[in-house]
Amino acid sequence: MSRYKKDLGDFGERMAAEFLMRQGYEILERNFRVPGGELDLIAETDAVLVFVEVKTRSNDRFGQPAEAVDRRKQEHMRRAAAYYLMLYPAEKEVRFDVIEIFASMQDGVPFLKDLRHIPGIILEG
């Protein structure tokens, strides 16, 4: 992965976490990795535990960012969420969200162009 993509992705995840915190969520984990899966963010409110995939793009030339959360990526999310819940059982509703970030780098400095929160993506069974 190029340095540009890494920096843009890291920026997108920071923007997504800040957005969620402004909405009243507590960020429990960032980049939770297990064999066979990863979750960019794990957040919670009083009633819901949310597993979040953040997709950052500089443009929509290849479609909307959420379109990249395909069956394979959803399976990785499901696996990581199951592992997390095994470690930290929750008595809450569980939800899978996507946050789309459109951002650019200008002179090495990232800036946010747009953010879209898509709660409750459907995980194919």
From TrEMBL:
Superkingdom, taxonomy of origin: Bacteria
Cited Pfam families: UPF0102
GO terms assigned for molecular function: nucleic acid binding
Residue ranges that the Swiss-Prot or TrEMBL entry lists as coiled coil: none
SUPFAM superfamilies on file: Restriction endonuclease-like
Annotated HAMAP family: UPF0102
Family: Belongs to the UPF0102 family.
Protein name: UPF0102 protein INF28_00140
Organism: Ructibacterium gallinarum
